[in-house]
Amino acid sequence: MADERDFRADMQRIGGLVQEIESIADPAVRATTKDLMQSLMDLHGAALEKALDIVAEAGEPGMSIIDRLGRDSLVSSVLVLYGLHPEDLETRVVKAVEKIRPQLRKQSCEVELLGVNNGIVRVRVETGSHTCGSTGKTVQATLEGAIYDAAPDLSSLIVEGFEEKPSAGFVALDKLIGSSAAMGPQ
Predict the structure, then answer these.
(1) Nearest to 89 by CA among 123, 111, 119
(2) Greatest CA separation for the chain
(3) Higher pLDDT, 166 or 105
(4) Same domain for 16 and 60
(5) Number of domains in the chain
(6) Within this chain, do residues 72 and 108 fall inside the same structural domain, yes or no?
(7) What's the first-to-final CA gap in the chain, in angstroms?
(8) Please, what's the b/e burial string for 70-105 (b: 16 or more CB within 10 A of its CB; e: otherwise)?
(9) Domain boundary at 81, 110, 144, which?
(10) Domain carrying residue 24
């Protein structure tokens, strides 16, 4: 867990540094800095790809290692960054939904993967009749976190089913006051 926190902190730090690079006033320095970063990423990407090729040459044991690397959250994120993850986007999303499904069921929710198309992931969640708003928000955050962790390279995540539902038998006071005010004196 500490590795994951460190990784997230590192990612936030990198994001901050990228913003600083974008704000460099001198366009030549900004361009040179970006070129340096791209060259380092290209070098690292080529080295990682070569390392995976060498491991894959070992046959089944090597492929098992590559699969294991793909399941490690830190390594997986780096493999996705370089386009080297052993599983495609849809496979990673399917596995994330399957993994989170039992936890959502405990919250009286069902999740259905509607599709993955051009980097856009669509899911639908059906909440139980007694699911309150705060539980719904927790479920949504949990689901989104699981999918984003597995597929940080997705371009868009659409979660259907968290539209406001009327509570059975409960009408908020402001709704009652608003309705009677709109009707005027009787």
Answers:
(1) 119
(2) 84
(3) 105
(4) yes
(5) 2
(6) no
(7) 63
(8) beeeeebbbbbebebbbbebeebbbebbeebbeebe
(9) 81
(10) 2-81
Task: Yes or no: say if 109 and 126 are a contact pair by the CB < 8 Å rule.
Answer: yes
pLDDT the model gives residue 132: 61
CB-based burial label for 45 (10 Å; 0-12, 13-18, 19+): middle
Residue 75 resides in a domain: yes
What are 36-79's pLDDT values in tens digits?
999 999 999 999 999 999 999 999 999 999 999 998 888 888 89
Dist. CA 52–CA 156, nearest whole Å: 29
Three-state DSSP string of the chain: CHHHHHHHHHHHHHHHHHHHHHCCCCHHHHHHHHHHHHHHHHHHHHHHHHHHHHHHCCCHHHHHHHHHHHHCHHHHHHHHHCCCCCCCHHHHHHHHHHHHHHHHHHCCEEEEEEEEECCEEEEEEEECCCCCHHHHHHHHHHHHHHHHHHCCCCCEEEEECCCCCCCCCCCCHHHHHHHHHHHCCC
Domain final residue, candidates 24, 58, 81: 81
pTM above 0.70, yes or no: no
CATH number of the domain where residue 107 is located: 3.30.300.130
pLDDT category, 81, cuts 50, 70, 90?
A: confident
Question: Does residue 51 belong to any structural domain of this protein?
Answer: yes
